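Example 3.
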Amino acid sequence: MAKARIATVWLDGCSGCHMSFLDLDERLLAVAEQAELVYSPLVDFKTFPDEVDVTLVEGAVASEEDLHKIKKIRAHTKTLIAFGDCAVTANVPSMRNLVGKKAVLQHAYFELATLDPQIPTLVVPPLLDRVRPVHDVVKVDVFLPGCPPSADTIFAALVELLAGRMPDVPALTRFGK
Amino acid sequence: MTPEELTLAAEKEENGSRAFEHIVGVCTSTACLASHSDKIKKEFDAQVKAKGLTKSVRVKAVGCCGLCAEGPMVYVESQADAEKAAETRTYAHVSNEAVPALVDSLGAAPVADLACDTAQPFFTRQHKIVLEHSGVVDPERLEDSIQVGGYQALLNALTTMNPADVVDTIMRSGLRGRGGGGFPTGLKWSTVAKAVGDRKYVICNGDEGDPGAFMDRSVMESDPHRVLEGMAIAGYAVGATEGFVYVRAEYPLAVKRLKLAIKQAERAGLLGANIGGTHFSFKIDVRLGAGAFVCGEETALIASIEGRRGSPRPRPPYPAASGLWGFPTLINNVETFANIAPIVKNGAEWYAALGSGKSQGTKVFALTGKVKNTGLIEVPMGITLREIVYDIGGGPFDGHTIKAVQTGGPSGGCIPEAYLDRPVEYETLVQLGSIMGSGGLIAMDDTSCMVDVARYFMEFCMTESCGKCIPCRVGTVEMHALLTKICEGQATMTDLEQLEELCDVVRSTSLCGLGQTAPSPVISTLRYFREEYLAHIEHKTCPAGVCSGLKSGAVKAKEVVA
Amino acid sequence: MSPTMTEATVVTLKIDDREISARSDQTVLEVAWENDVFVPALCHYEGLGDVGACRLCLVEIKGSPKLTPACAIKVVQDMEVITLSERLQKYRRSIIELLFAERNHICSVCVSNGHCELQWLAQKLGVDHIRYPYLYPKVSVDASHERFALDHNRCILCARCVRACDEVEGAHVWDLLGRGVDTRLISDLGTPWGESETCTTCGKCVHICPTGALFEKGKSVAEMVHARPRFAAMARVRNNSGR
Ligand SMILES: Cc1cc2nc3c(=O)[nH]c(=O)nc-3n(C[C@H](O)[C@H](O)[C@H](O)COP(=O)(O)O)c2cc1C
Ligand code: SF4
Ligand code: SF4
Ligand code: SF4
Ligand code: FES
């Protein structure tokens, strides 16, 4: 049987979910027996492949770039997993929604600036008006809340998915866990 | 006053009126007052005095006659004399400047350009019981009410019927609550009558929060004694000795007139201790609400009278068992109480013979929207919606067509043109996805966008939700956001699905009637005008051309997705 | 209340097809919980008056077309109650989702993370994401009290604190202000909690709060564990009734 192609991506999050993924430790080998990591910030592939079976998305959708990426990812992924609270609820990144984009930029680039205060237009992608959970933008197939979801949770969910079954998420994790 | 004294007082007042050749009635209810009818009344007084007619002409302030949009309204009642039969003339759009001419016309030809044709269906298709004396009596004079038979039913009941007879009469009359729900009034009375309690209360619900509704206001302003009499009869029937009229503070004129009426009736021995010389005592007080829609809900209203935050509580227990301060409480709507005296006076059979199906008597509606005649109307139950809209309302404005009729306000629904031949009955309106409601009736034509209408009512519910229970508090906000998204052409079919799902959640799980019926305008417009929603969502088109930013006009047939 | 005053009779009823006996002065919720039948609830708290506000405890009662809050209805002989159905679960999930959408629940940085009834119910009812758009209201934190704080971002307006303070402590510090989604919990007619003249600093409200809205100062993320005072037992002791 061909190995499943899995990917992980990192939008507006703290990378904690990816760290938790690495905490799978020796269980990564078990996963590797069944699946191949075809795209990830942990490995060095430049473009998102055309066909992916399972993509774990960490982070909320906060910038134009995130939006562009997630749409592309969705188009090329069979099973898309909102991976961790930032992807599921927009979590901490969404706290800027209370004050708005302008106030945040103002604070970061003017009030806190020591010299040459201005909002960058190059390299840094423009922010969306609102930080949004992934499912607010594209269809999500599995929600894996947790901040971050534990390695056990990730492993259990992956085992189920690779076996073609839906994981029993509430039995594994919850918001904030 | 004993019954005999009351009869004498009525006769005396009648004879007094007959001494005048002409009686000029100037409407001084809110709508006409807004066009300064109080000044017109003063001008009449001045003119009559100046022309030395004070012996033959009586000028009085009266309540609302219904055709508010044509105000200020004035009527002139002339006695028969050797040459002419008795006659009543009605004038519309009267101004201060017109008063001299009107005074000069007394006994002569009418002032043609102000004359209001009372032979038009707006007047002839109505049937007045509740509003029988509105626009006829001076709401600030007890004697006026007495002249037309006021308090006779009360004294009659006190002296010739026992409480159970009264309950039985109301039961057999088929009267149902006019506050919206249509609960059988007699059944409610008998429940309170049977309830055990050291004390019992009667509450008249005059909160009237539906946007655009002014039926109860008009009754309280134009004929307050009618309401008080109904409450006192109810007090006798259920065994209560104290009553409250709960009126929203935004109705200062109603409050003033009710308070005055209570004082007058007490002084005349028609309210207060030992009414009419009998053993029955009944005291009425006015309580003001701060104008929250939810305070019209009976348990919230009771909390408000008790001085607590006006939010509903789960029922049971119903107020009939445990109401004001925990005592059995009868709570009825203003219009319900206004029906009581005529029923007691004319008998249950007389009332039961009016109307159709399980809906007896008449219903007062505030007719508004896209029709030629708007105002306050009273129609027999069973009349068709078409008769109301086309005959009484005069139909749509030229070049337009009626699309739907909205009844029941934010708790009701939109009934499309195709069903206008259905009768106005509680059950029929529910079948059509709306409710009788308390009497708001809005005609809509081709320039009305049904999504926008649904959004308007949702906005109302969202801001009027008391905030106690979650589905109503948050659900209405989410539904309003979705409806706004549709109106702005930003919505997808997923949003529509979510809207429908929320309708079900909020309707099924909210605590009180406000939340339970908040989705109704959405549900009914989706039922009959789904294609308008789809036009907004899939074609970014508002067929009525109301929603700015969208294309207007019809979606071509082939574009419509089934 | 003396024992003779509670002239309750014993009734039998069915909950989810199970024959159960109960006292006629008990609510359906009490009886269900006593018999280990799970019915979710947030605004109910044993020993406080019920208000029927959260709507999570809605159950089906045979013969009644409407859903009924189990906390606000007394059991009667031969009643047939259904506490679990697809429809009920769907509504319960929707209500939880609406609560999460209403204020700003960032569990990962919340003092009550891991000790929160809302969070626990979400998991128990299988709510793993919120379908409704978040409202992100801009609300404040009142940290003016010397020992406690109120974070409106986490308040679900269950009014447990209001009732605990009023019915048990007798201080009535808390009440609700405003309407609809703008409703806010206030202390002493809207003055900061720290300036309250009625607050006795008893902490009952803090320990009865189902979420992270009321907490002890100095507690960091996930450190606020509620003591869950036993008001019903307190009331029994206070009234010397042996129920
Ligand atoms: C949100 C809400 C608002 C209401 N507003 C009114 C009102 O303004 N006037 C009224 O008479 N009844 C109103 N009602 C109905 C009352 O709760 C109550 O049923 C009614 O006053 C009973 O009188 P009736 O039997 O004579 O209709 C309202 C109900 C709800 C749920
Ligand atoms: S349905 Fe709305 S108005 Fe009624 S109790 Fe609930 S929040 Fe208050
Ligand atoms: S109150 Fe509960 S649900 Fe809200 S953020 Fe805190 S832990 Fe999460
Ligand atoms: S502070 Fe806590 S107990 Fe009080 S209403 Fe809010 S959530 Fe409920
Ligand atoms: S526990 Fe019954 S409604 Fe909240």
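The domain at 107-227 of chain C is CATH 3.30.70.20 (Alpha-Beta Plaits). The first helix of chain C runs from residue 28 to 34.
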